[in-house]
Amino acid sequence: MLDAGTIAVYSFAVITVISALFVLITRHILHAAFGLLVCLLGIAGLYLLAGAEFLGVTQLLVYAGGILVLIIFGIMLTNRADGKTIKAGNHRVIPGILAGLAIFLLFTQIYSQSSFRDSLRSTDNNIPLMGHPVESLGVEIMTRYLLPFELIAVILLVILVGSLFISKKENDTN
Amino acid sequence: MISFLFFLGFLVFYGLIAIYAERKISAFIQDRYGPMEVGYKGLLQTFADILKLLQKEHIFTFAADKPLFAIAPTIIFVAMFAAFAVIPLSVNITGSTVATGVYYAIAIVSLDILGILMAGWGSNNKYAIIGAYRSVAQIVSYEIPLGLAVLGVIMMSGTLDLQEISMQQSIFYESATKNTESYLFGLKFLGINVGKYGGILSWNIFRMPPLIIGFVIFFITSLAESNRAPFDLPEAESELIAGFHTEYSGFRFAIIMLAEYGVMLLTSFLAVVLFLGSWSTPLPNIGALKLAEWTSGTPGSISADLWGIFWLCLKAMTLVLCQIWIRWTFPRLRVDQLMNLGWKYLTPAALIIIFIVGLWKLALL
Amino acid sequence: MTQIELYFLVSIILFCIGIMIVLIKKNGIMILMGIELMLNAANINFVAFAMKSPEAIHGIMFSLFLIVMAAAEAAVALAIILRVYRFYKTTDVDEIADLKG
């Protein structure tokens, strides 16, 4: 039962959850960003073990190498580097936790009442893990998903121009 | 497993050699002697330095963010070393057989940025933080032409798997699963299938001539990725002391330096695998002189491994030598010149290369 | 617990932690991190459903597009946060309470 694959899945899951909790608990905002890094790496590991190899690597490249760097830059630019540690304050702690727990209960209830639950349970261990080959992803992007693919390229361009416009300095006439 | 142990050993050995070579070559270029005291012509100088670094105290500055400061060198090193997992060593030793090989390598190396940011911020030192900013800005901008240059090769070979790309460039091309026909200069109408000649003619840059420019772009961006002159703004010693690793000492400093030299080696390996024929021999078969077959060994035997590792390391070492040579020849760029070069010249050039490769493959191959 | 169920559980927990971060934290960038966690939770669900069937490549494709959109969203959000910081000199969402800047 406990083969190497299962142990790997469980350990990645535990790493992901614990580092997400660390992001929630820590009051040091830069430490939170690096907790998020560990969390994203754990999720990339989960993708790899689910046979979504390309997606896992994309997660590494875009999230860890792109979005997180952006976030850390944001933290560094919006906090004066005067030697003090940067704290992120909390507010509405009790209602926030209650709301989170309520949503947790709601989702677990939905899952336990769901119609697909039994079919997943009964067949899951018999079906081998299916990887999705990179070639088929490429073919799908260029055929069935061509329109979303082109649209997303346009959106990215708009985002690039828009975020530059928003963040440029006001007295900058160029 | 073999490739892991090989790279771990080779990296340390290479670090010792490369630092010594760097000193001797810089001395030669600047008309000095370089290290001469320890051992014959200073051969043991690097060992003495490593010994000194290992004995040194770990200094934490008072205002440093200690967890970030302590863990940053590990992240920098691990991000660099993890990319070696996918590099094939010979026809038998494939490394980790992931279908997304080269994509993985580029992605995992980009984690290195986070280590640099942690080091720079954790040091709580203005030189360190400026160095980290510069380093990240530089690596992020140069990753784009790097990725585009690699994309040209991927379009030509139709796979992301580095072993598959290597197979297509060797005389064992028949065991590659796709795209096994390679014609001289990518010109099918000449009808010369270079696969059976092997050697230099079946390298990617000769199977697809536009990739020569792609290789040049890859080489320039790899200099920027490894923070070396003429792109060494992050650690410009005349302005920033040592950039993001100003505050590091002892073993952690040694790890950061090893990681820097490791990135040089990694990008050289990647350049060799993608453009310069990977582990295949540079000598082609000429008529009765079966030079390529004599210098490739037989697949499945130890001879193929030894030849493969020999050729791969020889080519990579030549590229590392070029990197050292360039470092001591060119002056450092300014920040605006660096960004100009990256965004206004290299990125458009790489896009044009992709376009030409696509047309070439459709029309001529 | 089967592998798919484990993925669901991780996804639910991540989503709840994301919600809690968004509700509890004051700093704008922390809120952005919470939103990223929630997007990742959704992604894990897509991957979990795509895991055991070769036809279900849609899940993977949807996750790919979602990752790209998350990158775009992060870029815009950070641009806005930078702008807000330049004006109010803080990223604390409680103190950004003026209309008509």
From TrEMBL, chain A:
Q: Which Pfam families match?
A: Oxidored_q3
The transmembrane residues are 6-25, 32-50, 62-81, 93-112, 145-166
* Protein's UniProt keywords contain DNA repair: no
Matching Gene3D superfamilies, A to Z?
NADH-ubiquinone/plastoquinone oxidoreductase chain 6, subunit NuoJ
Q: Which family does it belong to?
A: Belongs to the complex I subunit 6 family.
Which GO-annotated molecular functions does the record name?
NADH dehydrogenase (quinone) (non-electrogenic) activity
Q: Which InterPro entries match?
A: NADH_UbQ/plastoQ_OxRdtase_su6, Nuo/plastoQ_OxRdtase_6_NuoJ
Q: Which reaction does it catalyse?
A: a quinone + NADH + 5 H(+)(in) = a quinol + NAD(+) + 4 H(+)(out)
Native organism is Mangrovivirga halotolerans
The root-end lineage is: Bacteria, Pseudomonadati, Bacteroidota, Cytophagia, Cytophagales
The name this protein carries in UniProt is: NADH-quinone oxidoreductase subunit J
Mainly localized where?
A: membrane
TrEMBL record, chain B:
Catalysed transformations (reactions): a quinone + NADH + 5 H(+)(in) = a quinol + NAD(+) + 4 H(+)(out)
* Superkingdom assignment: Bacteria
Keywords (A to Z) from UniProt: Cell membrane, Membrane, NAD, Quinone, Translocase, Transmembrane, Transmembrane helix, Ubiquinone
Q: Which PROSITE patterns match?
A: COMPLEX1_ND1_1, COMPLEX1_ND1_2
Where do the TM regions start and end?
68-89, 101-122, 142-162, 205-224, 253-276, 306-326, 346-364
For this protein, the Enzyme Commission number is: 7.1.1.-
Per UniProt, subcellular location reads as: Cell membrane; Membrane
| Membrane topology recorded in Swiss-Prot or TrEMBL | Multi-pass membrane protein
User: Does the record's keyword annotation contain Repeat?
Assistant: no
Q: Which InterPro entries match?
A: NADH_UbQ_OxRdtase_su1/FPO (IPR001694), NADH_UbQ_OxRdtase_su1_CS (IPR018086)
Q: Which PANTHER family match?
A: NADH DEHYDROGENASE SUBUNIT 1, NADH-UBIQUINONE OXIDOREDUCTASE CHAIN 1
Assembly with partners or alone: NDH-1 is composed of 14 different subunits. Subunits NuoA, H, J, K, L, M, N constitute the membrane sector of the complex.
Q: What is this protein called?
A: NADH-quinone oxidoreductase subunit H
Q: What species does this protein belong to?
A: Mangrovivirga halotolerans
Q: What is the lineage of its organism?
A: Bacteria, Pseudomonadati, Bacteroidota, Cytophagia, Cytophagales
Encoding gene, per UniProt annotation: nuoH
Automatic annotation (TrEMBL), chain C:
**Classification of source organism:** Bacteria, Pseudomonadati, Bacteroidota, Cytophagia, Cytophagales
Q: How does it sit in the membrane?
A: Multi-pass membrane protein
Task: Give the protein name, as stated in the record.
Answer: NADH-quinone oxidoreductase subunit K
Q: Keyword set for this entry?
A: Cell membrane, Membrane, NAD, Oxidoreductase, Quinone, Translocase, Transmembrane, Transmembrane helix, Transport
Kindly give the NCBIfam families that the UniProt entry links to this protein: PRK05715.1-2
Pfam families named in the record: Oxidored_q2 (PF00420)
Q: Which reaction does it catalyse?
A: a quinone + NADH + 5 H(+)(in) = a quinol + NAD(+) + 4 H(+)(out)
Family matches, as InterPro entries: NADH_UbQ_OxRdtase_chain4L/K, NUOK/Mnh_C1-like
Parts of the chain that traverse the membrane: 6-24, 31-51, 57-82
Subunit structure, per the record?
NDH-1 is composed of 14 different subunits. Subunits NuoA, H, J, K, L, M, N constitute the membrane sector of the complex.
Keyword Translocase appears in the UniProt entry: yes
What is its subcellular localisation?
Cell membrane; Membrane
